[in-house]
Amino acid sequence: VVFLTEGAREAAIHRTAADAAKTHVIYPGACPADEPQTVYSKADCCRFAHFGSLGGSRNPGAFLEGLQIVLDQNPQLIEKVRFDLYGTADRFSQKLIARFKYREVVTDFGKIPRQDALRAMKKSDALVLIQNLDDLSHETIPSKVYEYLWADRPILGLIYKNPQLKKILLEQGHFAVEADSPAEISTRITHILERWGTGDWDSRGFPDSPYTVQGAAEKLLAISQGIFREL
Length: 231
Prior knowledge:
This protein has helices at about 5-15, 60-75, 90-100, 115-125, 145-150, 165-170, 180-195, 215-230, and strands at about 1-5, 25, 45-50, 80-85, 105-110, 125-130, 155-160, 175-180. It is of the alpha/beta class. Strands 5-4-3-6-7-8 form a six-stranded parallel beta sheet, with helices on both faces. It starts with a strand and ends with a helix.
């Protein structure tokens, strides 16, 4: 049995008493060949960007709370920070955005073509990842993570009960905070803004992501070959 996360594998073994030796974890990854040739260029504003759907407990509430803390304490940053949304948002998420104290810093672009989204990722100053605030988050990794890792931009992950995902981000040089802690989120936003303001943000560079579609396929084939040898 193949699982997409270690958390899902562990939970399944616990629920079913399955033979751990017959279970595997393969991260699906992304295809770097799909990445458009877009060069990042620092602009006048630090743009945090979220890509994908927002709904239910995966909503921008905690990030907006953290951002409001930062802007309440540093009103001069209102002209220097933006939060861009690409994708769909349910009614609850839309209400959170509409009620945000500094509504002028938020832009909802809605759904855009995939290649345009990939280009926008590469042009953003920081990519925001938001997990659901429920126990299933321990067993899941948003598929958007793998595209984010190939965008070569800093990722701010709002992680909930998922040490595995937190480890993946930190090992690749990105940031991870508790998704239900606006105070921790505000601290990390402030840190990112400070780093962005120093002028070295455009030359950060990240190691190539080890999570690719080709790698996942090769691991799946290797598992299959091992099974056939045992028959």
